[in-house]
Amino acid sequence: MKILAQRALLPDGWKFNQVITVENDVIMSVETGKEGDVECAVLTPGLFDVHTHGGMGYYVTDLREEMQQKYLDDLLSHGVTDILLGTGSYAEYEGILSLCRQSMAKQKAGEKGGACIRGVHLEGPFLNPKKCGAMDPNKMPAPTKENFEARFGAYEDMVRLVTVAPEVAGADQLIRALLDKGFKVQMGHTCATFEEAQRAIAQGVTSLCHTFNAAPAVNHRAPGAVAAALLDERVYCEAICDFVHLHPGAVHMIYKMKGPDKMMLISDSAGPAGLPDGVYHLLEKDCEIRDGACYLEGTNTLTGAAVYTDQGVRNVMKLGIPSEHAFRMGSRTPALRMGFDKMGLIAPGCDGHLAAWDEEYHCVFTLVGGRLVYHGGKKDV
After folding, report:
1. Are residues 137 and 27 in the same domain?
2. Do 312 and 242 sit in the same domain of this protein?
């Protein structure tokens, strides 16, 4: 398939009148031209959301495949072509991970569509109960190798990222074991001091879960994990850019300190994401979407975002951040953090997971597996 883009985001920036040829899910060529099978105003790599829990009424604990499919399809209409599916802190994980494994196998075989599940992000259960957010603090066991293997040993091939609170007793040994297995590990839901966070970074914990959220505020006498992550050039920082979880000024500060190569745009989308304002039953609790975010009903406790990563891309542009940086933070940067070096670039030999946009950066079509999987409101065209 040949795509004619009036403007395409290439590794060295925006280029005009580009024809991108994709065959069998691989970009074969990129060249200046005037003709293509499909055309668009703007073409970028597909967005890669490494921190999402659901949407369109589906949450990761929902074991109905049809609900998961509805969510994966909806992501395509927002330019999200790839995800790590995020869990939380639960009593059992087997059903969740079994469905995820089944879905990944079907996608690999071409039997299932939607955004590609590239693996699992374990956002729990090895967190600090004092920073549990909307999760159940009673379902956060000690961070030991034995507890990890008992819950996830049969599914280690699917795990890409594990969020851990490094200050909890025993966490340093678990972190060492996880890194030895080749997992990516990040800090999150943590009360770690600046020094404790520095020690974790030195171990190899080189990203921070949703920066500023579920962590103590930065204080001039106790700067904590957030300051440690922002100051260390090795560390990637996730950022929920719905402008509810973070003030725009906080988002801009992360960008100024980390730059586009270490700041990752995430959604942290909850089950009701993409649905109208209202009350929805989720995680054995009632949640409500209001004012652009998802809360525990009747409280101001956030349970996740109500929008996807594309809204974060548009939001950061409002701060004056260059569009090429905004898209990089939503595609190439998370891909590199997760070890996918062929993702997030429009270049020969790279994955043909692409998103087309109008001039206001709303998605008009997505390409996965060498074919259009969303186009103008239609799926699998």
Report:
1. no
2. yes
Regarding whether 209 and 70 lie in a shared domain, the answer is yes
For residues 10 and 57, state if they share a domain.
no
Q: Per the omega criterion (within 30 degrees of 0), is the bond before 272 cis?
A: no
- Single out the residue of 41, 52, 46 nearest to residue 18, CA to CA: 41
Same domain for 179 and 309, yes or no, is yes
Quick one: pLDDT at residue 381? Answer: 44
Q: Would you state the pLDDT for residue 380? A: 54
In the prediction, which pLDDT does 37 show? 95
pTM: 0.96
Mean pLDDT in each 10-residue stretch from start to end of the chain (381 residues)?
Answer: 98 98 96 97 99 95 95 98 96 94 96 97 97 91 97 97 98 98 98 99 98 97 99 99 98 99 98 92 81 88 93 99 99 99 98 98 94 78 44
Q: What is the pLDDT of residue 285?
A: 76
Q: Which residues contact 163 (CB under 8 A, 6 or more apart)?
A: 121, 122, 123, 124, 126, 127, 185, 186, 187, 188, 189, 209
CATH number at residue 155: 3.20.20.140
| Residue 22 sits in the same domain as residue 163 | no
> Which phi and psi angles does 230 have, rounded to 5°?
-65, -30
Q: Are residues 117 and 263 in the same domain?
A: yes
Range of the domain at 266: 47-341
| Residues 283 and 316 reside in one and the same domain | yes
CATH of the domain at 366: 2.30.40.10
Q: What pLDDT score was predicted for residue 177?
A: 98
**Measured distance CA(374)–CA(310) in Å, rounded:** 15
Tell whether the torsion through CA atoms of 214, 104, 155 and 235 is positive or negative.
negative
d(CA 214, CA 328): 25
